[in-house]
Amino acid sequence: MKKRFLALAATLCLLLALAVPALAASDYDLAYDATDQMDTAFMNELGYDIFPSLTDQYKVQVRLDIVTDLEGYSIEDYAKLFYDQYDYGYGDTTDGVLLMLYLIEGADDLSFGGAWVEAQGRAADMLGETGVQQLRTQVESSLGVGMDGPLAQDTALVQQTLTDYTTALEAQLAAAPPVAGTEAPPPAAGTEEPAPSASTNGEADAQLDHVTDAAALLSDAQWAELEARAANLSQQYHCSVYIVTVDDYTNYSGSDVRGCAEEIFTDYDLGWGADRDGVLLLLSMADRDYALIAHGDFGNAAFTDYGKDVLSDEFLDDFRYDEWYDGFSDYLDESGDMMAAARDGHPVDVPGYSGGGSSSHSSQRITAGGVAGCIIVGLIVALIVCTVFKKKMKSAKIQTLAEEYVEPEGVQITVKEDHFSHRTVHREVIEKRSGGSGGTTINLGGFSGKSGKF
Amino acid sequence: MPDQVTNYKCPACTGPLHFVGASGKLECDYCGSKYDVAEIEALYAEKERRAAEAAAQAEEERARAASDEEGWDFDNLGGDWGAEGEKVRAYNCPSCGAQLICDETTAATSCPYCGNPTIVPGNFHGTLKPDYVIPFKLDKKAAMEALKKHYKGKKLLPKSFSTSNHIEEIRGIYVPFWLFDGVADADVQFDATRTHVRTTGRERITTTEHFMVRRAGRVPFKRIPVDASTKMPDEHMDAIEPFDYNELKPFSTAYLPGYLADKYDVTAQESAARADRRAENTALATMQASARVGYETCTPIHQHVVLRRGQVKYALLPVWLLNTKWKGKDFLFAMNGQTGKLVGNLPVSKGRYWAWFGGITAVVAAVLLCLSIFL
Question: A429–B202: do the CB atoms touch at under 8 Å?
């Protein structure tokens, strides 16, 4: 009991010690003030009310970070660093706009160090480069010349600048043309809701149907049914779902089957919205090759590396027996489950996911490779342990050292020289990972995928 | 060589020869070969001549080394036995050539090395009287207990080894050692590194700082032991170290009763190389330990060690030797007669080895499979 109490007390003290530096700055949900000098009520309204309201209305996250130390970065790099490291963006996307203010703390005042507006994803499309530049110039103009007074005057100026910035930002977002994928405005009273048209269809540019059966594996009725289901899924999750069958993928591409799938996706403008979110299953009948690829922030987040393994297990069982319709049906059902899970913030990424629909891929999914891996690890551990046992059987060995015979008081280090010689720097690009739990390997083209035989 | 009863051995099979009056020749008991007496005597005379030449050459080399200023200091090494020599008996083993001494009250009934019971008394010819001795502290019973303890916990030991083997012989023997003093001056240069890793949004930046590090110093040694008997396996004698030199006493025959003492048959000059190697390695290790503080890697790129060799002393140190036989093979165990540390190689049961291997593989694989299912 005493030990538990002491452990709890020690933990609380440690947490408090670590929290002290954080408490020096103030966090207001979507607004952050490292100076802790802005009016609390003003910042609360900004961070908990105004910015979240704009975020929900325009589906782009609106944020403010006031910093006092750029840690050697330029303000542009620092803003991008914040954006990436703290996963800013609306939902699982990176759609958002961040205003970073760099204020230099003096003895009794603040000075303006710089400002940057970082817009990404849909927000960048809505504001455009010109709009972003206008917002930034507005802030710089306001703070660049006026911050030479006492602290109270400086903080008041900053708050006024932020108010003006917020107003200008809202005006720009409201005036922005609708970007593909944004919801259509609600219909006026008394009118019927218009049918989805090309202007609200995020895949309007796509040059292929959701199901392209060049290999003639499906009947007309089967094709129609799968096409309708794929279209509904795409519309529901704003992530296009495609099926493509060909006789021989080499007729379309000089690359491998996965490369061919990526080329088809790109060449035919597939995918939903500006990010081209989508998933595509390609079957090539000549050598029974398949490729399963995903694209876009949401597409890669929903279809993680592990998720693609789960998804492919669903349809490969059917394809092995040439049950094409069943396999495609399972593919659509499972894709819908995965997109639903991703929308809920829990993409299929680790064992233990159990989705609804036609599949019950519980955590008891063991592949032959997994069993082999477990056995190999067991062999390695057994080899190490038995080697240790065997070494214990031999205790007679030649000594190569004489440490027991050193006179410790007589040991003298007479020369101690440490000279810096040179420095080497190695830079390694980190492969971008998306998804809440970070389980998707994405190539430079923005695709993730796998391929194999069926 | 002391005067002794000579057993003529058959040149063909080394079996014992005996004179057959009827044929007037020496006949082998084992293979039946027959030789003229003159022929065998001439053969043995040639052997003795070569042995004498080798002894004379060794004596010359010893004298030369003693006058070398850079070599070990043998000036204060041992001494004459004087009156004490009259209380010492010597024994020779015609089978393995061991030369043993013991107190006049102790009778040697068998060779502690090879078990030959036909050990023959000889005249005592002590070249050197030992400088030091560490008396036996542990008795034969403690040696047996230590051996039983040595078997425990050995997962791969054949069951029949610990149950059916029996100790053929236990002998307490004072083993001759050369004790080397000296100082090693080492000068070593290292390439050392420190690494920092920083991650930005898209890059992992690894910065490695390289340093040239130099350490030089002196490391004094006292009494590095090297066993001076060819009969005693070097691995066993090294492994039972260290002895507690606090109990090192000036030599006296009073410590001999009940125990045998081996005469050295490896000279100090011949043993010196082993002491040199241990001193050098330890000096380098000391410099490296000093250099690597504060660095992640520390690689020697240039090293230089000069040994300033000091005195050499001759000591007898206590060892219990235990011989056991199992399935026709001999197993030798040696126990430090002062500290009780016991060493000796044990047989490995292949059946047990593969049983453990398979069992561990199965258990680990099963655990991993369960974890992958339920986590």
Answer: yes
With a CB-CB cutoff of 8 Å, which residues 183-222 of chain B face chain A?
Answer: 183, 187, 191-192, 199-222
Nearest-CA residue of chain B relative to A352?
Answer: B375
Q: At how many degrees (to 10) do helices A368-392 and B350-374 cross?
A: 140
The reported pLDDT for the residue numbered B167 is 67
Q: What is the pLDDT of residue B239?
A: 94
Omega of the bond prior to B347 within 30 degrees of 0, cis? no
Question: In this structure, are residues A335 and A279 in contact, taking their beta carbons and an 8 Å threshold?
Answer: yes
pTM of the model: 0.47
Q: Is A386 in contact with B356 (Cβ distance < 8 A)?
A: yes
pLDDT in tens, chain B (375 residues): 333 344 566 787 767 776 665 666 777 777 788 888 778 777 777 766 766 676 666 566 555 544 443 567 766 666 667 776 776 777 777 777 777 776 665 555 666 666 665 555 555 555 578 899 999 999 888 888 888 888 888 899 988 887 765 666 788 899 999 999 999 999 999 999 999 998 876 678 899 999 999 999 999 999 999 999 888 889 999 999 999 999 999 988 888 877 888 878 888 888 999 999 999 999 999 999 999 999 999 999 999 999 998 999 999 999 998 888 788 788 889 999 999 999 999 999 999 999 999 999 999 999 999 988 776
Tokens of A14: 């440690």
**Full DSSP string of B233-288:** -HHHHHHTPPP-GGG-EE--GGG-TT-EEEPP-S-HHHHHHHHHHHHHHHHHHHHH
Under 8 Å between Cβ of B91 and B117: no
Q: How many CB pairs under 8 A join A and B?
A: 214
Report the residue of B227, B271, B372 to disrupt the A interface, i.e. the one with the largest count of A CBs within 10 Å.
B372
Total Cβ atoms within 10 A of residue A313:
15
B351 reaches A (C-beta below 8 A): no
Identify the closest residue of chain A to B202 by CA–CA distance.
A430
The answer to whether B228 touches B268, Cβ cutoff 8 Å, is yes
- In sign, the C-alpha dihedral spanning B276, B281, B287, B289 is negative
The answer to whether the Cβ–Cβ distance between B356 and A426 falls below 8 Å is no
Contact B204 A415 (CB under 8 A): no
CA-nearest of A394, A397, A384, A392 to B155 is: A392
The CA-based dihedral angle spanning residues A355, A357, A362, A366, taken in that order and rounded to the nearest 10 degrees: -110
Name which of B210, B219, B334 is nearest A406 (Cβ-Cβ).
B219
Buried b or exposed e, range B132-171, using 16+ CB within 10 angstroms = bbbbbebeeebbeebbeebeeebbbbbeebbeebeeeebb
Instruction: Encode pLDDT of A371-390 as tens digits.
Output: 899 999 999 999 999 999 99
B204/A427 Cβ within 8 A: yes
Cβ contacts of B232 on chain A, cutoff 8 Å: none
Report the DSSP beta bridge partners of residue B167. Answer: B324
Q: Do B364 and A398 touch (CB under 8 A)?
A: no
Residues of A in Cβ contact (< 8 Å) with B368? 373-374, 377-378
Instruction: With CA atoms as reference, report the closest residue to A66 among A33, A17, A99, A108.
Output: A33
As to burial, measured by CB atoms within 10 angstroms (0-12 exposed, 13-18 middle, 19+ buried), residue A39 is middle
Under an 8 A CB cutoff, do B218 and A410 touch?
Answer: yes
Distance from CA of B28 to the nearest CA of A (A): 39
Q: Which residues of A touch B150 (CB under 8 A)?
A: 395
Q: Where are the alpha helices (DSSP H) in A118-212?
A: 122-146, 151-175
Q: Quickly tell me which residue has 């020779």 as its tokens.
A: B92
**Does A421 contact B364 at a Cβ distance shorter than 8 Å?**
no
CB of A185 closer than 8 Å to CB of A140: no
Q: A372: which chain B residues are within 8 Å (Cβ-Cβ)?
A: none
